[in-house]
Amino acid sequence: MAATMQDVAQRAGVSIKTVSNVVNGYPYIRESTRQRVLDAIQALDYQVNAAARNLRTGRTGIIALALPELSLPYFAELADAVIESADEQGLTVIIEQHGGRRERELDVLSGVRRHLTDGLIYSPLALGEGDEARLDVDFPLVLLGERIFHDPVDHVTMDNVEAARAATAYLLGLGRRRIAVIGVHPGEVVGSAGLRLEGHLAALAEAGVAPDDALLGAAGLWHRATGAEAMAAMLDKGVRPDAVFGLNDALALGAMHELQLRGMRIPEDVAVIGFDDIDEGAYANPGLTTVDPGRGQIARTAVEMLATRISSRGAAAPHRVVADYTIVVRGSTEAGHDRPA
Amino acid sequence: MAATMQDVAQRAGVSIKTVSNVVNGYPYIRESTRQRVLDAIQALDYQVNAAARNLRTGRTGIIALALPELSLPYFAELADAVIESADEQGLTVIIEQHGGRRERELDVLSGVRRHLTDGLIYSPLALGEGDEARLDVDFPLVLLGERIFHDPVDHVTMDNVEAARAATAYLLGLGRRRIAVIGVHPGEVVGSAGLRLEGHLAALAEAGVAPDDALLGAAGLWHRATGAEAMAAMLDKGVRPDAVFGLNDALALGAMHELQLRGMRIPEDVAVIGFDDIDEGAYANPGLTTVDPGRGQIARTAVEMLATRISSRGAAAPHRVVADYTIVVRGSTEAGHDRPA
């Protein structure tokens, strides 16, 4: 049978209260007493009951991160960054994948799973404007991404329009004029696809370059395979871009693979830029130029905001933080850039 | 205030028992009654209380997957495959990342987190032989990976030695003789690094090729960056391999990037093979030849074994399943292989 706190107290010859103080890291305990309790804990293989310990604070020390899909490297690396930031705050993270399915996304917000966690960092895909009421929950919540605009809760986001505008402006600055966009969601206005396309078109307009629908490659899912397929479909129609803007890195890498299979030289014939700055892009051949949307900053900010909410429930008005972006130049747009001088 | 089951019953004009039957999917309910209850649920925005529903079965419908690191694409894609298989079984997955740290790995096995889940699929890195007693837990558990050999619990694994032997034998069959191994853990016997090196050395011995320590590139972590660094260190010493076996795909991709930066042609000058068959490898330039360790089979088998354990606790003796591997040939070892004929 499992040892109880009472067993530990008895063996150490101290009160239960003293055992509790040791277990909870209470500072004012004589070192010899502390050592006796720790010896008894070890001898009895006593498992600290976190649930009981948490009765004191009403907290579990666990937060949840709900995201679309771990097979998208952006989200896998975001999860890693969130776990690292949470670790610095003494918080443990569990991850829930909702697959961008509306029903699953709603499950994340209600239901038994929220009982265990102190708060939620939530990156929805299917929920959007009009779902604000769903976010009126009775637990600490920080929102990630673009999907909901009139924020009733803390929200960490990136400036998709401005960052995409900068990506296209950069390609235009290299003298490229026929810029294919891979990953378009026709008709979408909000959401990353719609916002990034808006930024792209704004940059074209500023430079006086006429947009061309033949250069818009649709791809519903933003994976390597769909990027390669969209690129292939465009090339098969005889369209010949001199640059490609993949709306995320996976799309860009898929497109770059397809271009190279057809004997096109990157960047001489076609310059390629992505969006996300996933680790994989740095090791592609050539290295993938990309927009770094500030993933580390997003993760760190979200965890800090959530930790603040947890320790002061419902105190302050919702915050909105927009992460800084940067363009990371590599060999896929400028030859020779992969090896630092 | 949130609607209760009683509110739903009142509005639908049925008993609470009938509402409960509808919510729990009980089959023998008149369709018109079922529809009335569903209408009432919708009208009142009634949230089914999963905790209450689960009192009936004593289950939550949630399983946990504990793994080292999501920034390793193998584990991100494994997680995705487990979630997909669990979905088919009507199970939801939450993910816990332990980072290969012993203390965290032990936390996964005990503690508050296990209260919420029906069972655990567990891929440890730090625990190993001698820790079998830790696996004697009172919840359904399926083990993944190589770390513990005398299995007290269900275990799904791959044949690392045999699969690595096949990888090296394949390179030898192409006429390569100076095969660098990237990702070696000096002194390790158990664990993926030790087992895969053992397979590599067995293949050399079978072919009568003398091993050369200068061709063993150490890398503690199996990331792209460490693969590139190990490759660079070897090349800087003047070692000139005609093939590279990356002990996982990330290492192989990092090594391939470094080789190409230095102007070496893949596969003409150096053939490269990895291990894992992550999606990224298929879109590398050239595509990465690799060992597919049967990730889909591993995920499916683990979920099925866990589901069986959950529905028949403690019934059967532990099973051990070894997944089938295959070698996936792409352009990094045989030119022209990236485009199907």
Automatic annotation (TrEMBL), chains A, B:
<dbReference type="Pfam" id="PF13377">
    <property type="entry name" value="Peripla_BP_3"/>
</dbReference>
<dbReference type="InterPro" id="IPR046335">
    <property type="entry name" value="LacI/GalR-like_sensor"/>
</dbReference>
<keyword id="KW-0238">DNA-binding</keyword>
<dbReference type="GO" id="GO:0003700">
    <property type="term" value="F:DNA-binding transcription factor activity"/>
</dbReference>
<dbReference type="GO" id="GO:0000976">
    <property type="term" value="F:transcription cis-regulatory region binding"/>
</dbReference>
<dbReference type="InterPro" id="IPR000843">
    <property type="entry name" value="HTH_LacI"/>
</dbReference>
<protein>
    <submittedName>
        <fullName>LacI family DNA-binding transcriptional regulator</fullName>
    </submittedName>
</protein>
<feature type="domain" description="HTH lacI-type">
    <location>
        <begin position="3"/>
        <end position="57"/>
    </location>
</feature>
<dbReference type="InterPro" id="IPR010982">
    <property type="entry name" value="Lambda_DNA-bd_dom_sf"/>
</dbReference>
<keyword id="KW-0805">Transcription regulation</keyword>
<dbReference type="Pfam" id="PF00356">
    <property type="entry name" value="LacI"/>
</dbReference>
<keyword id="KW-0804">Transcription</keyword>
<dbReference type="InterPro" id="IPR028082">
    <property type="entry name" value="Peripla_BP_I"/>
</dbReference>
